[in-house]
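Subject: design request, 213 residues
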């Protein structure tokens, strides 16, 4: 079942600003504790599908992220227990309607529309946890039409994965197949209709690509 976790899991938990340089480029303070938002599972899009920009806007932003796929139920667990709950990983994009998000921020409103539209969570295949030797030494990259835009290492995360899982589990029970998006490195920017968005994890040879419509 975990090979198609997106058909099993019931939520996507996305950590905000978990890389210092990304917080800086957003002119936002570096968080002192993890914060997150939810994306609906209707935002999933697997390889072969297209990213569809919502009506009324001309571009959306790419945010390449390492996704953590939960394998066993986790509620109010400690950092030291957290990794036992992980089934595996994936590469994913937290696509963001930045114009809508900026307007929401100004009004103090939630980010749901800007982060949760259909196709806002393109993702790659399941990577079993056993295949990754060091989760803190993965290079994530993203390119638009073949031009590299983002490149960063998971070693640069402000909050490491065990702390993210335990902190979220105090508020939401994490369930089998749920996806935790761990934040994006610097370099976010727009994609427009007709573009091709590609992302990868260098050390694993993982590469995913989506057409933008």
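Subject: RE: design request

Done. Sequence follows.
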């Amino acid at each position: 079942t975990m090979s198609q976790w997106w058909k099993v899991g019931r939520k996507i938990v996305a950590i905000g600003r978990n890389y210092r340089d990304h917080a800086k480029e957003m002119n936002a303070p570096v968080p002192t504790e993890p914060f997150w938002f939810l994306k609906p599972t209707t935002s999933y899009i697997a390889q072969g599908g297209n990213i569809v920009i919502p009506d009324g806007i001309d571009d959306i932003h790419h945010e390449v992220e390492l996704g953590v796929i939960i394998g066993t139920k986790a509620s109010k667990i400690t950092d030291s227990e957290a990794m036992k709950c992980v089934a595996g990983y994936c590469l994913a994009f937290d696509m963001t309607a930045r114009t809508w998000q900026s307007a929401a921020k100004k009004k103090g409103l939630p980010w749901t529309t800007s982060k949760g539209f259909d196709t806002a969570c393109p993702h790659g295949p399941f990577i079993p946890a056993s295949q990754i030797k060091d989760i803190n030494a993965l290079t994530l990259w993203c390119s638009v039409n073949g031009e590299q835009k983002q490149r960063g290492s998971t070693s640069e995360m402000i909050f490491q994965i065990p702390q993210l899982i335990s902190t979220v589990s105090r508020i939401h029970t994490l369930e089998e197949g749920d996806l935790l998006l761990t934040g994006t490195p610097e370099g976010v920017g727009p994609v427009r209709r007709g573009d091709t968005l590609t992302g990868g994890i260098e050390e694993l040879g993982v590469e995913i690509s989506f057409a933008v419509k």
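The chain has five helices and 14 strands.
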